[in-house]
Write a structure and sequence with these properties.
Helix 6 links the parallel strand 4 and strand 5. Helix content is 31%, strand content 13%. With 415 residues, the chain is α/β, with parallel strands linked by helices. The chain folds into two domains: 93 residues, no CATH class; 245 residues, Spore Coat Polysaccharide Biosynthesis Protein SpsA, Chain A.
């Protein structure tokens, strides 16, 4: 008996359907649809195989508000790819399957904000303060110095500033912040001034300049940044030896010890020890200040007067400087936040010491008609109060966020 052609076709179709259910084949990558390079019109996206095969790890939109979406998509893609043991090559345009590679190590970094449209190899996200020639081959220019000295200065203190700069070798770039507007006179009197960087803004304080001109990406090439006042007596100071000592002792934030016999006395921890030690990290002295050696300003503390930061420590401290609080009061008792071990990585260098002459240069920048220096100091105290309040509120907010995150990730309690 001949088979009915129609029944034969239906039987074959049914058999093929059953085989397909038993042995499913997935040919699309297992990625969320929002990280696919997919912008089709009508039709079912799930059934568009070509659209799913033509994918990229990160989607860059022309929308100006795409940063958070891009980061979320990248995180989701990384999580899924980690589950599937898929890694992205450094060029970010190929997919390589590996059963052992780590996505966290191999995934490319997101480009800096603003550089998303540029080819990665042309992006330069850091700079320096080293002066270049206007002629010759760029590769033949003098190299960037290893360290940076910054001083906030007025011309009336030129003799002391000159003495300070003379203690720093050619390994240092020098940057002067002029609060009195006088810049050209320095070039006429001091040869080193012609190779220094000069920034002029009238009647501004050191931390105002630091926030605006010492961004971590601008000073990234420098191993150490000296952020000093202009009124330090440096008779017994040598900058190269100082750098050697802070490197030897692993100090990320430091200052030279103060000779109280020749200058103004401040916190007991900053006083020079005459016992032949190179550095010290704490103190138990002072009138009622240091009953607990593990608290500021008894350890993990240097003043805002003459701090020296490692590259990494300054990258942290810069973010703590407030735009509107220009005197910097209160920063020093919070420098400990910028290192891993404050009682080991913050210290005072006794072998290289200075004296604080305490010249009221900032006070003279106040308005004489409204009280001059007294008004300036009153502003500094108000700023200190504001900074403490902001830090307290920031700590509390961080604690609440941490508690909420912990509660969200903790498993539910069994009844």
């Amino acid at each position: 008996m001949k088979l009915n052609p129609i029944l034969t076709a239906l039987s074959a179709a049914t058999l093929g359907f059953l085989i397909g259910l038993s042995f499913p084949v997935q040919i699309a990558p297992q990625l969320p649809c929002y990280v696919l390079s997919w912008s089709g019109g009508g039709g079912d996206a799930a059934s568009n195989v070509l659209g799913r095969l033509s994918w990229v790890p990160f989607v860059v939109s022309n929308n100006n508000n795409n940063s958070s979406g891009t980061a979320a998509a990248a995180a989701a893609a990384a999580e899924v790819m980690n589950q599937n043991k898929t890694t992205i090559t450094a060029s970010s345009d190929q997919v390589v399957t590996s059963s052992t590679a780590s996505v966290a190590a191999a995934a490319p970094k997101l480009p800096p904000t603003g550089a998303e449209r540029l080819p990665p190899n042309i992006v330069v996200s850091e700079s320096d303060l080293h002066l270049r020639r206007l002629w010759g081959e760029p590769r033949e220019d003098t190299p960037v110095r290893k360290y940076l000295l910054t001083l906030t200065v007025g011309y009336t203190e030129k003799a002391n500033v000159n003495a300070t700069v003379s203690k720093f070798s050619d390994d240092f770039d020098v940057m002067l912040f002029h609060y009195d507007g006088r810049t050209t006179e320095w070039d006429e009197e001091f040869p080193w001034s012609q190779s220094a960087i000069h920034v002029s803004a009238r009647k501004q304080a050191k931390w105002w300049y630091a926030k605006r001109f010492l961004h971590p990406r601008v000073v990234a090439p420098y191993d150490y940044v000296f952020l000093w006042d202009e009124d330090l007596d440096v008779t017994f100071f040598d900058a190269d030896e100082y750098v050697r000592l802070v490197t030897k002792h692993g100090l990320a934030i430091s200052q030279p010890a103060l000779d109280f016999a020749r200058g103004k006395k401040s916190y007991e921890i900053t006083a020079r020890r005459s016992s032949g030690v190179e550095v010290h990290l704490n103190t138990t002295g002072g009138p009622g200040n240091c009953s607990d050696v593990h608290q500021r300003p008894c350890s993990g503390f240097v003043e805002v007067m003459a701090p020296v930061f490692s590259r990494e420590a300054w990258a942290c401290a810069w973010h703590m400087v407030q735009n509107d609080l220009v005197h910097g009061w209160g920063l020093d008792v919070n420098f400990w936040r910028c290192v891993d071990e404050p009682e080991r990585q913050i210290g005072v260098v006794d072998a290289q010491y200075v004296a604080h002459r305490a010249v009221p240069s900032l006070g003279r920048q106040g308005n004489p008609e409204t009280g001059g220096g007294g008004k300036v100091r009153a502003r500094a105290w108000r700023e200190y109060s504001h900074f403490r309040a902001r830090m307290t509120n920031a700590d509390r907010a961080a604690q609440r966020e941490a508690a909420a995150a912990a509660a969200a990730t903790s498993p539910p309690r069994s009844k």
